[in-house]
Amino acid sequence: MNDISWDFYRTFLAVLQLGSLSAAARQLGLTQPTVGRHIDSLEEAVGYQLFTRSQQGLLPTEPALAMQPYAENLAMTAAAMQRVASGEIGAIKGTVRISASEVIGVEVLPPILACLQDEHPGLELELSLSDSLEDLLKRESDIAVRMASPAQDALVARHIGGLPLGLFAHRRYLDRHGVPQSAQDLATHRLIGFDRRTAFVRAAANRIRIAAPAFPDLDHIRWSYRADNNLAQLAAIRGGVGIGICQVGLAKRDTDLVRVLPEVFELPLDTWVAMHENLKSSPRWRVTFDALVKGLLDYVRD
Predict the structure, then answer these.
(1) C-alpha atoms less than 13 angstroms from C-alpha of 33 in its C-beta half-sphere
(2) pLDDT in tens, 116-145
């Protein structure tokens, strides 16, 4: 097999993820005929049909699905190389990609990163927000704020400590429905929770059983308002929908959010900042790592 252009794999991945030539063309800034030629050339090179047409768009064939993880690895490697090439040796400038949970990325990191860029205007920051863990060894991101202890050896990690979680409701809700006085009283209130048991929710349930044994088992709670997104749950608490779980540090910023049953429920959310050890000697990654550590430690102490 002759060498295959990376452009073909990049186009293949876009079509695979988006399901059509036109959508891939828009994302890549190419024309639809060019995208079609890339796919045709890749199919000719590998000797397999990669997509079939259906009413739902282009569906990947079995060979395409087998190629997907390798194309994704190529994309991550290319993105990491581009970030490395964006800077200058010894200079605090260039691109740094940070991964964090949605709540941390939206509610906590912006002022920390604003101060960082004020001090180092040559830095370009990318935020990848998800509750899943991106792989630092594969350079899906450069630095990660994680709610779990890093298990990989080749990482530099700093333990921030536990971000305390508590039960909170808006004053409007409590004025209408009263303040629960015991864990049993929660059964008469509207509770905000997840709509499905993801790995994150299962891990949280196990931690709650240990840290807050008086709190009802998550499997037996009747959630009146469900969302699969932490930001949506936070918005529901702020909107007066009901009682939900919120970071204590965030709730302190809003005098209308009232903590309920602190003696029943407090859960520390263990937090770390981590990056690949190969990056620790590079100024731009080091100053970003240090700024995240300092900013998050200040947030925990407030």
Answers:
(1) 0
(2) 999 999 999 999 888 766 555 555 788 999
Q: Count CB neighbours of 177 within 10 A.
A: 15
Q: What is the pLDDT of residues 181-218, one digit of tens each?
A: 998 899 899 999 887 766 666 666 666 766 667 677 66
Strand partners, 100: 129
Q: State whether the Cα torsion 283-289-292-294 is positive or negative.
A: negative
State the Cα–Cα distance between residues 102 and 44, nearest whole angstrom.
41
Q: How far apart are CA 296 and CA 145, in angstroms?
A: 9
At residue 173, what is the residue type? Y
φ, ψ of residue 64 to 5 degrees: the values are: -65, -45
Integer Cα distance of 14 and 284 in angstroms: 30
